[in-house]
């Protein structure tokens, strides 16, 4: 099975900082990768699909890029409400593996 | 208004069985593929099972293959997960999630709030 590895596992940044989270797959996913945000005690929320397409209603400070095996999620200008754990998800074929998660906190 | 409500979780002994349900409203249930995703306490997300809109295509994670059965009743707008031979490592919050079926790959755009399953003696 294709493995999906996220890094870092933890990020501490100041309000307004740019935060970059990476996701690496062990095989080519083309552009088929999704990103989710999970705030404490809540269900995950889809942020980005197809590597770079912003889900409706998601603030434009979130962006995704990449293709093949290397992908990034960027938060341009961290806000207090962005404190959450972020997950990438392999979206090309079954199994729909999730990355291990990146916890983002405010410094 | 879209609503996804899971139910059926609870405390069960190892080796026992449980049936989860997911009731959906606010979109045309029969048009969409659905999945179960779980999250063990303090851990990350784990895909469990997937069923296509008509029920003809089904996937299971290796960790539950042969023990769990996914099904749906499009007339009742409901998704199910029959779990048997439960193990301590199946303890998790189980989410029902919708695949929006875009051409750009599988993803989950609508999630319920989850139902907790605890396997313990």
The backbone outline of chain A, from C-alpha atoms, is: globular
**Sequence of secondary-structure elements of chain A:** EEEEEEEEEE
Total strands of chain A: the figure is: 10
Give the N-terminus to C-terminus distance of chain A in angstroms: 37 Å
Helix share bin of chain B: under 10%
Mean pLDDT score of chain B: 96
Strand order, biggest sheet of chain A?
2-10-9-4-5-6
SS summary, helix count of chain B: 0
> What oligomeric state is this?
heterodimer
Tag the structure with descriptive keywords.
heterodimer, A: 107 residues, mainly beta, 6-stranded mixed β-sheet, 0% helix, B: 121 residues, 7-stranded mixed β-sheet, 11 strands, globular
Structure description:
The complex is a heterodimer of chains A (107) and B (121). Chain A has 107 residues and is mainly beta. Chain A has no helices and 10 strands. Chain A has a 6-stranded mixed beta sheet, with no helix packed on it. In chain A, strands 1-3-8-7 form a 4-stranded antiparallel beta sheet, with no helix packed on it. In chain B, strands 2, 4, 5, 6, 9, 10 and 11 form a 7-stranded mixed beta sheet that branches. In chain B, strands 1-3-8-7 form a 4-stranded antiparallel beta sheet, with no helix packed on it. In chain B, a hairpin with a 5-residue loop joins strand 4 and strand 5. The radius of gyration of chain B is 14 Å and the shape is globular. Chains A and B meet through strand 4, strand 5 and strand 9 of A and strand 5 of B.
What's the short version?
The complex is a heterodimer of chains A (107) and B (121). With 107 residues, chain A is an all-beta fold. In chain A, 0% of the residues lie in helices and 50% in strands.
């Amino acid at each position: 099975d294709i493995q999906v590895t996220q890094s870092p596992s933890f990020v501490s940044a100041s309000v307004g900082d740019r935060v970059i989270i990476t996701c690496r797959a062990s095989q080519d996913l083309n552009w088929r990768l999704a990103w989710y945000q999970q705030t404490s005690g809540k269900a995950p929320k889809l942020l980005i699909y197809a590597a770079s397409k912003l889900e409706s209603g998601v603030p434009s400070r979130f962006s995704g890029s990449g293709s093949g095996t290397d992908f990034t999620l960027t938060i341009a200008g961290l806000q207090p409400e962005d404190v959450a754990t972020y997950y990438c998800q392999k979206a090309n074929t079954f199994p729909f593996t999730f990355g291990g998660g990146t916890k983002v906190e405010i410094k | 208004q879209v609503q996804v409500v899971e139910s059926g979780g609870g405390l069960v002994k190892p080796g026992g069985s449980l049936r989860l349900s997911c009731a959906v409203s606010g979109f045309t249930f029969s048009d969409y593929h659905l999945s179960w995703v779980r999250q063990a306490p303090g851990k990350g997300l784990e895909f469990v099972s997937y069923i296509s809109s008509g029920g003809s295509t089904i996937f299971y994670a290796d960790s539950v293959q042969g023990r769990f059965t996914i099904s749906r009743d499009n007339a009742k707008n409901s998704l199910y997960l029959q779990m048997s031979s439960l193990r301590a490592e199946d303890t998790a919050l189980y989410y029902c999630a919708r695949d929006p079926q875009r051409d750009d790959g599988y993803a989950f755009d609508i999630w319920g709030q989850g139902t907790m399953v605890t396997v313990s003696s």
